[in-house]
Amino acid sequence: MNEKRKRIAVVDDETDLAELFSQGLQQAGFKAIAFDDPITALEHIASNPQEFSMVITDWKMPKMNGLEFTKQLSDIDGKIRVMLMSAYDLDQDQLRKVNKDDYLRKPMHIAKLIDSIETALSEPLQEGLEITKKDQTEDRKKQPTY
After folding, report:
1. For residue 129, pLDDT beyond 70
2. Which of 15, 19, 58, 101 has the fewest Cβ atoms nearer than 10 Å?
3. Per-residue pLDDT tens for 19-44?
4. Phi and psi dihedrals of 140, rounded to 5?
5. Burial 101-138 (b: 16+ CB within 10 A, else e)
6. Dihedrals φ, ψ of 80, to 5°?
7. Which of 2, 11, 22 is nearest to 85 (CA)?
8. DSSP letters for 73-92
9. C-alpha–C-alpha distance, residues 48 and 77, integer Å
């Protein structure tokens, strides 16, 4: 995987969680940056969209929900991959409206997040991807949960 494709933005209104995910991704060899404000994240990405290959975003944030965030991100650059995450049960009809590579339920093991990112970045970009579910192996259960 080339260096450009390894740049990931993590957007979550819980600052500690965004930082924790970002640090875990950095330890796995990705270049990651954390944002606790979706508007700031969009402004930063818009100033240099070719720097990012993926954005991992929380679904439920106070200033902007994940659906609106992904729509605005797509307007900036439709080639940036999107992975949604949430601690809440999400409405499947709304999820189908979002061009995303995966949906992950928090809390999750960092190994699950990394595996999902690597899978998404290795596949051709597609529109309207369905939600994917991957089984966690026993060794992943030993990884820290974020």
Report:
1. no
2. 15
3. 999 999 999 999 999 999 999 999 99
4. -70, -30
5. bbbbebebbbbbbbbbbeebbeeeeeeebeeeeeeeee
6. -80, 125
7. 11
8. HHHH-TTSEEEEEESS---H
9. 10
Fold of 4-141: Rossmann fold (3.40.50)
Mean pLDDT of the chain: 80
List, edge to edge, every strand of the sheet that includes 81-86: 31-35, 7-11, 54-58, 81-86, 102-105
Give residue 24's identity as a one-letter amino acid code. Answer: G
State how far the Cα of 96 lies from the Cα of 8, in Å rounded to an integer.
23
Residue 130's pLDDT is 34
Q: In this structure, which amino acid lies at residue 32? A: A
User: What is the pairing mode between strands 81-86 and 31-35?
Assistant: unpaired
pLDDT per residue as tens digits for the range 69-94: 999 999 999 889 999 898 887 667 76
Token pair for 115: 């595996």
Domain chopping of the chain, boundaries: 4-141
